[in-house]
Design brief:
Layout: E1 2-7, E2 10-16, E3 36-41, E4 50-54, E5 61-62, H1 73-76, E6 77-78, H2 81-107, H3 112-139, H4 144-151, H5 164-170, H6 187-200, H7 206-220, H8 224-238, H9 247-259, H10 269-282, E7 295-298, E8 309-310, E9 318-324, H11 329-347, E10 353-359, H12 364-373, E11 379-386, H13 390-393, E12 401-405, E13 411-413, H14 419-434
Parallel strand pairs: 9-10, 10-11
Antiparallel strand pairs: 1-2, 1-3, 3-4, 5-6, 7-8, 7-11, 9-12, 12-13
Helix pairs in contact: 2-3, 7-9, 9-10
Length: 435
């Protein structure tokens, strides 16, 4: 077994011990342990069996049940009042959550009287837990666990606030002392960071994510330890995300705003050069960028550029650049559903977009055969007869890839949308433009 400090979504191992025949593990290192939250885990180190605190006494015993739980904190913990109180608190919290789940089941009942009783039960439970938490937090404010629990408990949204979601996002980091570097060795800071960027801000547009990121980083931009803690975790998730709209723009913004202005001093010159080149490359295909005009040969494969077809010169308001490969099963499925939508709109006289379908890195003979046999009604282009490298121009790394251009032929979508989502997306886009 191992004892370690939390660090982001993993652990830094601090000590180890072998169990005896009775299942006892004795950690007897001679070092003095810092006050804080620690984890007990097995050799995989992916998940802690138990989080505990070292606060005050450096010599104590914790006994676990077969299910790796502290069944009775007063009996199973000896020599550590901090752990006794912490586990008693957590046990009470778990009991309250179970009660709340049972009450929720009653609230879903069709019986009005039962639902009314459930509402009263939930109100009583809520008041009871508020009083319990207030009391235990005040009585044990000297212990690190309760200091952290209080610090990371918020933010509380006042009842009189109209836009509660906006208030919550804006005040998310209130009350947290980000100058305290010991926070990076707690699960609390990691959980809050992860939830903020990939929970609270998950569906926000890139401009909004960047604005709230700036609000946070302004608090720590002169603290390279905290900046690195956040940046090393969030940046890889934003980089070239294949599913999330606008995440590439967020990555580019953060690189330019923080890495390329010297606010990430741990970054090597080679890393900065790589990031600068990546930004310059990605910015060509970000949402809002002007789509580069392609000229490609159709299935006739004429070598004369005068016969090639432009990706921009169509009467339709929108153009879908569809990069696909006839050897790709997923491409075949998506192309079939896109054809069905295209045919239905054409039949209704409401074809608001043209599909410029590029046979991506495929055998030309096989591509032409597939287009012919499946009667694909798109503007079908492919082969090596093309004016520019479309993989570079549109950051295409595989098939299928979808790029949607508006009437100005600017990029408004650079991720693959399911066919059923294309029209709703265009409707929302037009609604936003109207405002």
């Amino acid at each position: 077994m191992y004892i370690g400090q939390h660090f982001r979504d993993g652990f830094i191992t601090m000590d180890s011990a072998r169990g005896d025949n009775n299942g006892n593990y004795t950690f007897s290192g001679r070092r003095k342990w810092d006050t804080g939250i620690y984890a007990l885990y097995g050799k995989e180190g992916k998940k802690s069996l138990l989080d505990f605190t070292i606060d005050g006494s450096q010599k104590f015993t914790i006994r676990l049940s077969p299910s790796n739980e502290v069944a009775d904190p007063q009996k199973d913990i000896v020599g550590s009042p901090a752990n006794q109180i912490m586990f008693s608190f957590l046990k009470r919290e778990d009991q309250a959550k179970k009660q709340a789940r049972e009450i929720d089941k009653k609230k879903k009942s069709g019986d009005a009287k039962v639902k009314d009783e459930a509402e009263k039960e939930m109100e009583l439970l809520s008041k009871d837990m508020i009083n319990f938490e207030d009391s235990i937090f005040k009585a044990n404010s000297k212990y690190r666990f309760f200091q952290l629990a209080k610090m990371f408990n918020g933010p509380e949204v006042p009842d009189e606030v109209e836009d509660k979601a906006l208030y919550y996002r804006t005040h998310f980091w209130d009350g947290i002392d980000l100058t305290d570097h010991s926070l990076i060795y707690t699960p609390d800071l990691f959980n809050k960071m992860n939830y903020y960027f990939f929970g609270v801000l998950y569906h926000m547009e890139s401009d909004t994510v960047c604005r709230y990121a700036d609000m946070l980083f302004k608090k720590i931009e002169n603290d390279s330890v905290m900046m690195r803690y956040f940046m090393d975790f969030i940046m890889p998730k934003y980089y070239r995300s294949t599913k999330n709209i606008g995440w590439d723009a967020t990555w580019c913004y953060l690189v330019r705003k923080y890495y390329l202005t010297g606010k990430c001093p741990w970054a090597t010159q080679a890393e900065l050069t790589n990031k600068r080149q990546s930004v310059e490359f990605l910015e060509q295909s970000l949402i809002g960028a002007m789509g580069q005009e392609l000229y490609m040969a159709d299935t006739n494969q004429s070598p004369d550029p005068k016969d090639w077809i432009s990706s921009h010169r169509f009467p339709q308001k929108y153009v879908i650049l569809w990069f696909w490969d006839p050897d790709c099963h997923h491409c075949q499925e998506q192309t079939a559903t896109l054809k069905a939508l295209y045919d239905s709109l054409s039949a209704a006289g409401n074809k608001i977009f043209e599909v410029y379908a590029i046979g991506y890195e495929s055998d030309v003979a096989k591509w032409k055969k597939y287009v012919r046999e499946h009667q694909l009604p798109f503007v079908n282009v492919g082969g090596s007869n093309v004016n520019i490298d479309y993989q570079v121009a549109y950051n295409v790394h595989g098939a299928p890839t979808m790029i949607i251009l508006n009437e100005e032929r600017r990029i408004i979508m650079n991720k693959v949308l399911a066919t059923k989502d294309i029209l709703p997306f265009l409707e929302r886009y037009e609604q936003r433009r109207a405002h």
